[in-house]
Amino acid sequence: MHNQLYNLQMLEAAYHKLPQPKDSERVRTYIPRHPAATPPSYPQVQLPVASNPAFWERLSMHSYGTDTMFFAFYYQQNTYQQYLAAKELKKHSWRYHRKYNTWFQRHEQPKVTTDEYEQGTYVYFDFHVGNEDKQGWCQRIKTEFTFEYNYLEDELIV
Known about the structure:
Blueprint (H helix, E strand, L loop, with lengths): L1 H14 L37 H7 L5 H11 L4 H12 L3 E3 L4 E5 L5 E2 L3 E10 L11 E11 L10
Antiparallel strand pairs: 1-2, 2-4, 3-4, 4-5
Helix pairs in contact: 3-4
């Protein structure tokens, strides 16, 4: 009976990880939205290393890596690099909030935890650049923040 239950659980888990049609699609190459005229000495194509997952893993180990990953996430939208950056951010306990379109990380253990939300102090990445009222593009602390789980982005999409 134990083996049968275990097999059913494994089949159920495998069902949720079925290959999708998009898994067989080729990776789209980067096409800039607003190309700028640059001198021939300036690189004209993106380096292939930027599509290597090992590059992003090594990058995340450096102090400047987090900012680089946030840059890739917000400025290389709908690319494989955005996916790789998000994957590394998640490995470092950053969680994406769909309502605020920003990344949060626990600053300390939540004070309140339920099935629907958790409340506590969080570090969040402020991606707003050039606002009159605040500097932006930095990490800030938000106290007494309620992180509702229904806004948590769990799936990474390539």
